Amino acid sequence: MAINPQYESEVRRLLKLNKRFEAVRYLQNTLNVSNTDADRLVQAVEGEIASETQAALQPAVQGATGCGKVLLKVISFGFGFFGIGFILLGIGAYLLFNYVEAEAVEVQGRVVDLRASSSGGEGLAPVIEYEWNGETKTHYSEVYSSPPDFEKGQVIPVWVNPENPQNVTVLYEETGRIVIYVFGGIGVFFLVIAVVLFRLSRKMTSPL
Question: Fewest Cβ atoms nearer than 10 Å: which of 116, 141, 163, 206?
């Protein structure tokens, strides 16, 4: 049973005022129908009102969902970018250590002194003497640490560039491994977060 638009308008007005009982009674008296039929007609109008409200809210909800998806994708790309960057730094540190060991010549050096930083920091850097072609040379490390990585009198390996014997590399093996593991671990962690966020953004759907 359809309702005259004029009657439907009055029913809508009463429903808007939370007067459902009065809306049912209005239709019952106006259309001369039973209470059950009048109640069904009111239910139909309520359904139309609910559909209209949902249709009005749909664009806003879809817009919010779309913004959320874009934001998650941007964040995931950011994590992915930094993750790849940290992994590349770890790989670079690993390759650098391997390159130094492959291209330079390893000789034995001795820590003859520990010098303080000229900037007034608390760290100490080793002064290392080593033999090259029968000559004693001195290397002043610029790596300061507190507590110092080496002790005075300690014998440590150093890598000398054959083309420039003054160019010496001291591989801080523990520090180097930590750098590789930390950078690699952070990179993998960031990439995992990036994948999770990206997959989450793909699963976000607009409501029906």
Answer: 163
